[in-house]
């Protein structure tokens, strides 16, 4: 009847080390957070790999590594590309 369940999207905060994804959107109305996300270059379509989750989220992009606070990572929604 059912063919299984697969999650293909998530908040960046919930990804595990080594998972890869593509940024889809930022889910906040807080202009401070939106400006920080934009200033980091984290726009829709940006491909990344998670390198660290604690104490901050560290992602690897083509341009290099970026450290993101948990608060910002919680508001960034991504499509997971490796399952």
From TrEMBL:
Classification via InterPro entries: Fe-transptr_FeoA-like, FeoA_core_dom, Transcriptional_repressor_C
What is any Pfam family matched here?
Answer: FeoA
In the UniProt record, does the keyword Nucleotidyltransferase occur? no
Q: Which GO MF terms does the UniProt record name? A: transition metal ion binding
Record's keyword annotation contains Flavoprotein: no
Determine the domain of life of the protein's source.
Bacteria
| Keywords for the protein's UniProt record, in alphabetical order | Iron
**Domain Ferrous iron transporter FeoA-like as annotated: residue spans:** 10-80
Q: What is this protein called?
A: FeoA family protein
Organism, as annotated:
Fischerella thermalis JSC-11
